[in-house]
Write a structure and sequence with these properties.
The protein is of the alpha/beta class. It is built from 9 helices and 11 strands. It starts with 5 loop residues before the first helix and ends in a 13-residue tail after the last helix.
């Protein structure tokens, strides 16, 4: 029976992530020969080839891919065991890994992280800014403990705790005809051309749904890579777009030639939730953490009004 070494499995997973022996060794804080030797020894013990070694690239064999998938789950469970042991001594210590999508992370986290640090001074938060589908994948692989995502989600293996609803505002150049209104109606968007994010962003899907409901359409010759790109394209008189309310709240500076208008109720909004695996050993603590995230100041979720 092969005597598998957990350290060797960690090396194998790191190699699968970066597909390069030197970078995998650097990630694992060992020398490249040590990492290579341990993976070769693991192959010998299992009597299978897991890695195809080429001069310029590293590939996994089909059996290697399957073993890596299982190894991720195993290592995730080992982390959970360590977390259980740590929390039996100190319930609010240790490390929690949270994924959050890019159109929420920079606008939400500055308002809540100080309170998390104050409440749990011994806790280490590792934050990963990734698109929604990547956060879900990383949760499934045990690479994350929780995610902050927009609902709805179809994954029934995820526990969900709704945190808040965030309204959208319409962002437009100061000289746009709709800028004279103190608020806009959904029907005002009929035949308007909206700037949208590129594929993979959940905000894009939400904006497309608004387009469908109102008769607006997408500006097809431009897809932004970030919310900040959208902001500056609007300011450059390129078009109009939807922005989440948190993205226009202080401490963010105002942008010249860009104004925002709230929607008349009921306007478009997104629902933000914290999610984690139903099988997570950290479930009780994640419930506590979700409570802190949900306690965001309601004023931050209220679109500014202009008379």
């Amino acid at each position: 029976m092969p005597r598998m070494n957990l350290r060797a499995l960690q090396y194998l997973v790191a190699l699968a992530d970066v597909r390069h022996f030197s970078r995998a060794a650097e990630r694992c804080h060992v020398s490249q020969p040590t990492l290579s030797t341990q993976i070769r020894k693991l192959e010998d013990e299992l009597e299978v080839q897991m890695v195809e070694r080429h001069p310029r690239q590293v590939m996994l064999t089909p059996v290697g891919e399957e073993i890596v998938s299982r190894a991720r789950n195993l290592l995730g469970e080992m982390d959970a065991i360590r977390s259980i042991a740590r929390r039996s001594r100190d319930p609010h210590s240790g490390t929690v890994r949270i994924g959050i999508f890019p159109t929420l992370a920079p606008y939400f986290l500055p308002h809540v992280i100080p309170r998390v640090r104050q409440t749990f001074p011994r806790l280490t938060l590792r934050l990963y800014e990734e698109k929604t589908e990547d956060v879900i994948h990383m949760l499934g692989e045990g690479q994350l403990d929780a995610g902050l995502l927009a609902l709805p989600l179809s994954e029934d293996w995820l526990e969900q705790r709704t945190l808040f609803e965030e309204p959208f505002v319409l962002a437009l150049p100061a000289n746009h005809p709709l800028a004279v209104n103190s608020e806009v109606r959904m029907e005002d968007l009929a035949d308007q051309e909206l700037l949208l994010l590129e594929d993979g962003h959940c905000l894009r899907e939400q904006a497309l749904e608004v387009c469908h409901l109102t008769g607006a359409h997408e500006k097809l010759d431009f897809h932004a890579t970030s919310m900040e790109t959208l902001r500056h394209m609007v300011a450059a008189n390129t078009g109009i777009t939807l922005m989440p309310t948190l993205s226009i709240k202080p401490p963010l500076a105002s942008t010249d030639n860009l104004v925002t208008r709230p929607f008349r109720e009921p306007g478009p909004k997104r629902t933000i939730a914290m999610v984690w695996r139903r099988s997570s050993a950290l479930a009780d603590f994640l419930e506590e953490l979700a409570g802190i995230f949900a306690a965001i100041d309601p004023e931050l979720l209220t679109p500014p009004r202009h008379d």
